[in-house]
Amino acid sequence: MNIVVCVKHVPDATADRKFESDNTVDREGVDGLLSELDEYAVEQALQLREKRSDEEISVTALTVGPAKAADAVRKALQMGADKGVHVSDDAIAGSDYLGTSLVLAKAIEKIGSEQKVDLVVFGMASTDASGGVVPAMVAERLGLPQVTLASVIESQGDQVRIKRDGDTATEVIGATLPIVLSVTDQSGEARYPSFKGIMAAKKKPVESYSLSDLGVEASEVGAEAAYSAVEEATARPPRTAGEIVTDEDGSGATALAEFLASKKFI
Amino acid sequence: MSASSTAALPSALSSGVVFTGTPERDALREAAAAFTRREVAPHLDAWEDAGALPRELHRAAAKAGLIGVGFAEEVGGDGGTLVDSLTVTEGIFDGGGSGGLIASLFTHGIALPHIAAAGHTPAGADLVDRFVRPTLAGELIGSLAITEPDGGSDVASIRTTAVRDGDHYVVNGAKTFITSGTRADFVTTAVRTGGSFEPGKGHGGVSLLVVEAGTPGFTVDRKLEKLGWHCSDTAQLSYVDVRVPVANLVGEEGSGFVQIAQQFVVERLGLAVQGYAAAARALALAATYASERQTFGKPLATRQVIRHKLVEMRRQVEVARTYTHAVAARHDAGEQVIAEACLAKETAVKTAEHVCHEAVQIFGGAGYMRGSEVERHYRDVRLLGIGGGANEVLADLSARLLGYAG
Known about the structure:
The complex is a heterodimer. Chain A has helices at residues 36-51, 70-79, 97-114, 134-142, 195-201, 211-214, 222-225, 252-262; strands at 2-6, 9-11, 32-34, 58-64, 83-87, 119-123, 146-150, 152-156, 159-165, 170-176, 179-183, 206-209. Chain A is an alpha/beta fold. In chain B, strands 1-4-5-8 form a four-stranded mixed beta sheet. In chain B, α9 packs parallel to α11. Chain B is globular. Classes of the chains: A alpha/beta, B alpha+beta.
């Protein structure tokens, strides 16, 4: 079985994140890391490989991004993925979800031209843009079923069954491979790269693709081709003092409930 | 969307102390820090109060690949050098760990090396299978017992005896200040199988025996309360006519002193890392506090008296780390660095004591409060100049090794 896990290199959420002058995310000036939500995707791919240890299963970590994005692939390799693919091209900078999904889909097709891809795994969203739509777009472009936001994943043969926890109901969805799958942060804590894994990752192959390798024109991606753009960004205002509900006559709970209701929390 | 984000606590990196090595060591340090942020930091106060670490943590750390670093794959470890295992310690402090945590979660670092090193004989290989592998897998907890109520750093004068009786040794004596001793499944015990405990006569008669918990006559006398390292349990152990199979002898009879001495370099460098890594963490916490805390209308860090303190703290951390790494790298290269390890430990101990003292000072009243992290480091680092060879003992050892003894 051939599994591709799509991973994203994102600015460290604990660092001071900034925008470039054209309102795209500054990806060079801040420390980056493998998006935490994508670690869950890597973990599920590795668990599937371990649970089906009698099969030949290959896990490829795929990323799209500038030179530093190779770190996201490396982290996935250190966790245990078998090989990596890094798509990098200056023309990709500023791509929106559609542009990104096009590059990912073409890269998955190229990986699949050598060995058919049975399963594409995503995290539920990136921790920087938080769109959560790329898995669906890639599925559409590849003509594959999309099985998204899984919290539990089971598989046997070419059958996959997942649990998806919604706000009002829990769904159990069955699908037949090949599919595009996205997993949530409830699917199971991701493993830490071990010393052995870190040392082994040094020797694992990482292929680099440019847009021309994928047959994608520069004009199809990047900021120019984007359907959406950030016009303006404002820094988060400093925290304010908040509102204190004082309970003197037993009405505190009511006041608190009214406050939460007014903010649509309850 | 509930992306769990790591707590935005300062790390040594955020204070500018750059713990860098090879890309692989950076990844290892980050993995150790990530493990600590997620699996340790949220619970550390509770474990400090409980006075011990839970066993599950040993399994989790082994699963995360942290326990086996520095031990050869042939004995169940993950491979790697001393510098690699020191890198794990750096990561654990960076993630919010503590000296007590290191001492207790990594007690195997002092309990196992002798057994692993003696594993080349059939009898040694059996001990490796029984004790080293399961411990590196996080299933067993081991301790090392050398210090006795009548003496500490003076290994040659131990009084606990082991007398041969057929296929067994009969052990009698007492050990104290034994890290992880109340939880240990086995204790690598220094015993006297010959010679005399009188000054100058004891070196040849010391042997190492693995004593398993539950062996009749072997008991935990007391759980000892301490100034710091609260999450690390410490025991006083009693041996009364304890029958230990001869198969549990580590290496040759009478070779215990040499075996113990050979591991001292590793232990001392490990304590040196604890010193500068705790200091780096305390510096990061103090620097962040100094930039946020307003006094008389300005952040503390705008006061020259404070920011010069921070620079001095930084200077000491940088020097201690650089020198300790240099000595560890020489050890990995096969050089004899007994004296240098003493110097590294002394440098790091002084750094830790100075930096943690100043960190508490910068935090003021908040730093004196139980539950503030700098308060814990301040108490914890006091042990570093005592354990693994007291400052004074190491200074005298260095004087002899360096030719200053007259």
